[in-house]
Amino acid sequence: MKHSVFFCFLFLVFLSLKAQTDPLTQPHGARSQSLGNLRVNLSDSWAFFNNIGSLDRIAESELAVGYDHRFGLNELSTFDLVGALKNNFGTIGFGVSRFGGSLFNQQSLGVGFSNQLGIVSMGMKAEWFQTQIEGFGTGNALLLSLGGVAELSPQFFLGAHISNINRGKISKNSEERLPTAIQMGITYWPASQLSIYLEAEKDIEIDPTVKAGLEYGIREWLWLRAGANTNPGRVFFGFGLKPGRFQIDYGFGQNSALGSTNHVSFGMRWEKD
Predict the structure, then answer these.
(1) 180 Cβ partners below 8 Å, 6+ apart?
(2) Which of these, 6, 61, 182, 190, is most buried using a 10 Å CB contact count?
């Protein structure tokens, strides 16, 4: 009985967060989440999940791990591992993610490639996505995503990303399709230590979400961040530390209806051979 009640509650939570269900549609990395769940114009290893098109804009190869703890429930937590290998011909990315607990969980395993030509960088990734529900079985799907970023000027960047463009189903025995979403965003750098972000996201089945974020570098190794969303209204803040070739990020999000979330990620960079 206890498990049945909990599963019903969990299912209602998933319905209310359909556009943010991990690990498919939720932005990854504490930096992204502290800026208001931004996706398209952040150039770091987490771009593998957020916008594969911007992955080749990283300067060096990177490896990162992350953990998200949502609304005080371990069953709504996410673990991530992501890597980006920078080469002369482009950047190869890979990622592993797991969301949920024993009653309901989703995991993905994927690879992708991104390349920059002139002012435009583009990329594509493929993911094997699995959904497991206790008592209902396991479903698997192959998902394809596309993304890109254009440098309109040294201060302006325009990005776009489409997830699950092939409209993959939750399983071969189900007619229910996994979320397909389109994100578009613009970034403005009025100064080298200040970035302003504006982004819109539209899942094909729900109302659009507007996101805004602000990032300011107090020092080269210390960055402060804040963000906000509509639909539903949420606020975020966080910080980033960059000691040497390492990076530590923390993000906090507040949802008035469901509570708070905490996001932590740790990464390191190294020069390409």
Answers:
(1) 162, 163, 164, 165, 167, 203, 204
(2) 61
